[in-house]
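HOLO CASE FILE
Compound: NAP
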Amino acid sequence: MKKIALVTGASRGIGKAAALALARDGWTVHVNYIQSRAAAEAVAAQTGGMAICADVSDGQAVEAMFEKIGPVDLLVNNAGVAVYGLLTDLDPAVWQRLLDVNVTGMYNCCRCAIPPMVHEKAGHIINLASILGTNGASCEVAYSATKGAVVAFTKALAKELGPSGIRVNCVAPGVIETDMVKVLGEETLKDLAEQTPLGRLGKPEDIAAAVAYLASDKASFVTGQVLAVDGAFVL
Ligand code: NAP
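Model generated. Tokens follow.
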């Protein structure tokens, strides 16, 4: 029987690429989104799962999503938001939204996914962190803080769930060509590519390959890790 996965924020960008890569590896993948219904449905049509609208920061919406899809063997906490600007210019509501989506969203999904995994004594959780979660960046203090939380959450949860046979890892992407970084503008993105030892920005497929590896049996002794996929941007 096919294994079931849920990828949050899989209507576009990294989440979409991860859902498609997992489907190629034989997973049935449910596709969560918040706004992009048509795009999510198009991805789900290729991954054999459902397209499900739920704001991951809303605990009740996440519970309703899990009632629809049932237990999952793999949860990929990918949905995320970013903001650029000085910390002192940041609206407190925006600070709160970043925490709600990037941190509480991950917690809300784990809360629903974990009990059946513990019952089965099997399962995987993969969280999308960022190189900024370990290194930080000017004008991305709030975002860096949320991704630092993702890293600590991943390590602690790996220790907690290891005895139940559940692996928990995170991927820390560098700068990846998606809508999230488009706001930086072409000049800045060109500079960032030049600062990357491999001489280019990452593609969503680069991150999807890391997710697929961590979800596979090839990574059966890998847990609690932060897998940087960044072309050596941070060393
Ligand atoms: P993206 O292109 O902006 O796509 C974001 C995805 O998340 C979309 O599918 C969006 O759905 C969904 N989403 C946003 N808020 C949501 C919410 N509250 N509930 C459910 N879904 C929500 O982002 P990306 O670049 O692919 O990033 C994916 C993940 O990788 C994020 O966690 C991000 O922080 C991380 N990351 C990205 C980069 C990068 O350079 N791109 C680097 C490091 C880490 P809709 O389409 O419906 O709006």
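CASE NOTES: The first strand starts at residue 4 and ends at 7. The first helix runs from residue 13 to 24.
CLOSED: yes
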